[in-house]
Structures are given as structure tokens and as C-alpha cells.
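Late entry, evening session. Most of the bench is empty. Finally got around to the prediction I had been postponing all week. Sequence below, unchanged from the version circulated by S.P.
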Amino acid sequence: MISKSSVAMTLAAGLLSTCLAAPAAFAADLKIGIAGSPTSMDPQFYVIGTNSAMARNIFDGLVNQDDRQQLQPALATEWKAVDDTTWQFKLREGVKFHDGSDLDSADVVSSIERVKLASENSPSSFMPYVKGISSVTAIDPMTVEFKTETAMPLLPNNLSRIAILPSEEGTTPSSELNAGKGVIGTGPYKFVSWIPDSTIELSRNDSYWGKAPEWDNVTFKVFADSSARVASLLSGDVDMIEQVPPANIGTLETNKGTAIVTNSSNRVMYLHMDQDRDESPFAKGPNGENPLKDVRVRHGLSLAINRQAIIDRIMDKQGVPAGQLVPDGYAGYVESLKPDPYDPKKAKELFAEAGYPNGFDLTFHASNDRYPNDSLVAQAIGQMFTRAGINTKIVTLPKSVYFSRASKLEFSFIMGGAAVETGEASGVLGPLLETYSPNSGAGNRGRYSSAAFDEALQRGRSLLDADARNKALQEAMKIAMDDMGVIPVFFLAHTWGLKDSLSYNGRTDGYTLAENVHAAK
């Protein structure tokens, strides 16, 4: 590892003039109402949307994703595969951390190595994004080389998920970052303070390497209750909110002084089932056995769901039915995998074939404050299951309780939402469906396991040829959907409400980023 103190860096004046934009003469603050509080200020601790979105305001990766999740240069200006198992990344000159220190290759090496430390006690760690890396080396102050165990064509995609911190923070535990110590990135805004479940305060980074941030100070206010979030915008308490409830979209569209921004989403709402235990705590057939282990039961449950009715009646048409885990346009999408039709009669036939002509007992657990209308969606699905002959009970819990218990496998049947974090299918197939181990299947709460799926997924991760890689990911997708490893329900739409004096460039990942909010010209 190269230490910063031993590195003498020279900066090209021409590069500095293009990369280090002069601070703009803005003198305004921005207040944003968000739906959920980050659970940590450690950007490497927990793969969950609330944490990742907040981190993107403060931190950069070597590679970032744009509004449509296409890769773009960030702390690295270029990268290349030297051979099947070697990648080199050239760092951007002149980048400074929020503490004034200069970015160099030692910071990258330290940050990659820190992921393991940050993964301790994580409900869903970042280890899957770095697990195939055998070594990372500082070749010179501005060049980093990655060696991988096998070919990793998706390494740049994976690294877009890893925040870079100063090397001095390489051994800083998550607990210290949560206390506000060492929350130091290179992003457009600096960390000021965090009160969990309340507020996050940021200030402009005048030394940002990209376009000058527009706002002096940014305050994120947490409103877990959607009605309170809408009321805060209407009252002027905040300038913008995320996750507008479908029922309030019309109000904000017609209200003088407010506007709506909506765009398509990469987040799929899905159902996970216990497919591992012979006896499951909340799914019991007549003899106490776990019916969810039978693929016919899982397909029957999918057929029992009226996806379009959920979208039309509960989501106010803010969504698209899902038959797989990525939307059209993403690598791994399979054209032939359409959403299952609503067919309760066929569902009952499949239950009977599986040995449950009179159904079985099922308790369906879901969150009630994580996703738009999550409790209402769960109630609707439960009613549909009941109509198909399943004795269904619904229990919804706050996300602070729900996800922890779900990760401990305390439930049998759950609902979740998964975003295509890497911009291609392996980013969701791996976490949700890869055979669980300490370094894989971090979000596989149903413990689905298929050797054929794992093999196809691994091929998709290792093929350098884009077409061959896409075919392997499609194969993995088809295997998982044939097995009904999870039941896709629908893709969310992302909706923001804001003052009509502002504009916002919405993102497919649903992140709310202050740098994308602009004042009217």
C-alpha cells in the first residue's frame, strides 16, 4: 500500500480547470422530506435504499451511476481490463476529501479492504460486491489495480456501489461513523449532523470535483408517515418530498405552488417464501408440514394475485406488473417472462395437485412504513390468497422491527422490494436468490437454492463478452422464475412532490439527491 505522506502529486492546470468547478454564488438552503431514516452513516454498512441514497449525497465511488443507472466516470476517469483477471483504474487528478486531504490510490485500497470490517453485524452487507477480488494494489499514486479470482466483467458495476473514504478511516468502525466521526467523502455535500429518525444536515462542498453544488445547506427531514410528509410540503415546511402516496398525487398536481415528478423505477416488489425448512413457523399444512417447499404451491400463489388490480386500485396506477426481477432494458431481462395472469381457479388446481385441496394456514408478514402503500398491498394480496382457498393472516410491522426479524428467518412468507443496484440482473439475482452463505445470498430470506441457477449466475458474472453474459443472466432469470424462487408482483414508479419553483431530475433507483434539485432559472 502506498501511504499519502510518501506521494508527491503533480496536477495539470488544464485538468484542474475542467474538473474543479468554481463554487457558484448561491445563497439558499434546501429542505427535503424523506420517507425513511438512514440506519447508519457508514456508507459501506448496509445495502438498503435509504442508506445508499443518503450516501450518494456525501460519497463517490470509483464509478458512479447516472439517473438511468448507466456507468459514468467518478473518482476514476478511465478503466480497462488488462486481462481476464486484471483491471486497472486511473484516478481523477485534483480530487479532495471533505477534510481537505487529496484523493490517491491508497484511499481506494483502504476503502476496498474496509468493506469486510463494515460488514460485521450487517443485515445485508456489501461483501457480495467485492467477494471476487483477490487483491487490490496501488500501482502508483493515481493508478489502482484489481486482481480477481475469476473473470469479473461486472467489476466496474460492482464498484459503483462502494463508497471511497480517506485511508485514515480504513479501520474506523461503523459505530464511530454513526457518532459523526469520519463521515468524510468526496461528494457534493459534506456531513454536518444526523439525528436518527429525525434529520440529516449537510453543507455544500466548495471543493467538489464536479459541477458546483447549488445549495449552501441541505436538510433532510424524516417523515415516516406519508400524510405528514405531504402536509409538510403543502405547509412549506419542506421544499420537496419523496415517495408521494398515490392518493395524494392529484392533490399536489392541482395545488397552486406544487408540482409532481414521476419516472419509471427499477425497484420490484416481490414475495419471498420459506423454501428450506420442512416445518416453518407461519406456513402449515394439515400435518404441520411447510407447503411453500412445493413449486406448485408457489406458482399457485402467483396466479392468485391480481397484479393490475393492485396497481389500479391501491397504487393509483403508479406501477407496472412484474413477471421477473428486472424491467425491460436491463441486461438479464427475458422477453418471454410475462407477469402471471390472475387465475384463482388454476391456483386452486395447483394447490390440490400439491396435496392441499382445502388450502393451508399462512401468516404473511410485511412492513408498514418502508414502501408506498406496503401495508395496503399486503392486505390486498392476503385477501386474494384467501379467495383462492388459503387461510391467510396478515401481520404488518414497522421496518425497524420487520427487516431485523425477517433476516433472522423468523417468518415464513414476506414482502420486500429490491432495486437493480448494479444496473443489470446479477445485482438483484445474487442477493435474493443465490444459495446462502456468509458471502452470498445476503438477502435470500427464503433460502432458495438451485445449483443450476448458481452456475448460470456465476457464468453471467464471469463472461467478458456482453452478449454471452446477457444470455447467461437470462438463463439464471428463467431458472429462478420457473422455480418461483420469489414471486415478482410489480415494479414501483418513483414520484416526488416539490415546489413549482424547483425542478428535479428523477432517477430509476429512486434516490433523492440534492445535486439533482435545481432552482427555476
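Two things to note before I forget:
The first strand starts at residue 29 and ends at 34.
Residues 466-483 form the longest helix (18 residues).
Will write this up properly tomorrow.
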